[in-house]
Amino acid sequence: MKKIIVLLTAVLLIALVWFFALSLNVPKISNVKTQEGKGLPSGFELLKLNGEKVDETELNKGMVLLNVWASWCITCLVEHPFLNELSDTYNIDVIGINYKDKLGDAIKYLDKNGDPYIYSIHDYDGKYALKLGVTGAPETFLLIDGKIVKHRVGEVNQQVWDEEFSDFF
Amino acid sequence: MKNLATFFSIFFLSFFISSDQLYPGLDEQQLKRLNYLSDNIRCPKCSYGNISSSNAPISKDLKEEIAQMILANKTNDEIYDTMSERYGDYILLNDVEKRNPLIFLAPLIALIISISVVTIYTIKKSK
Question: Do A135 and B58 touch (CB under 8 A)?
Fold first, then answer.
């Protein structure tokens, strides 16, 4: 009987160690899925901050960097100087999605902090961003011919750019 | 005095505000479904918690979207599919059991084995 108990304990211990060793290799699942591989939502009439209609074919052609921002978003303010640098130094075209923001506040924000965007889409109720899979601001999408190849949730800075985006440019 | 009157007016009026007034198109049964689905969908912006317990703007937007889907006669499975397609399985709180039944079975198996071993050992020793 003693032998059986020792054997059983040993088997249980080995099983336990094996189970933990296996668990170490299981990829982390507790993250929201990014939107990579998808396209932009359709069926929306998008307007720029100046009231002009957005030509959606422009968004689905070539390389487009979409940045979700808002005047009330503190992290966007932290991110803003780097976006200015991207547009000035690297000469990269950035299109903004102004998320759940008042038009006046958004324009004031860009006047004060500089405007790195070739234009910004005014998504006042956040419905376009919701369908795009945005969970808050800031978020950045890199699209190639209408397909999202990179989706960053959170701030983009020099380090993030070098690690996740620069290879595409 | 005027401020006090305003305060009490707002206080008493708040008793008449309920969730059905936030989603005017839904009947009682549909509201129950909305609450059930909101309890089982995780807030994608928060570390823990479902969208019914979260005040994040994204949770409010998702609840509204679910309400619209209920009005469009989508089934619960179709709504869960839409959410998991956009945010991943992580968003589904009722899915853990289906994905990894071992989480629930392992402690039970361990308990049964332990009780059996102790019982057999005790019986054998007492003889």
Answer: yes
Q: Note the pLDDT tens digit of each residue in A22-43.
A: 877 765 544 667 889 999 999 9
DSSP character string of chain A = -HHHHHHHHHHHHHHHHHHHHHHHTSPP--SPPP-TT-B---S---BBTTSPBP-HHHHTSSEEEEEEE-TT-HHHHHHHHHHHHHHHTS---EEEEEES--HHHHHHHHHHH---EEEEEEETTSHHHHHHT--SSSEEEEEETTEEEEEEES---HHHIIIIIGGG-
Residue B8 placed within a domain: no
The domains located in chain A, with CATH, are: 43-168 (3.40.30.10)
Taking the CA of residue A88 and the nearest CA in chain B, the distance in Å comes to 32
Structurally, chain B folds into a number of domains equal to: 2
Does the beta carbon of A108 lie under 8 angstroms from any beta carbon of chain B? no
Residue B58's domain comprises 23-94
This model of the complex carries an ipTM of 0.76
**pTM given for the model:** 0.74
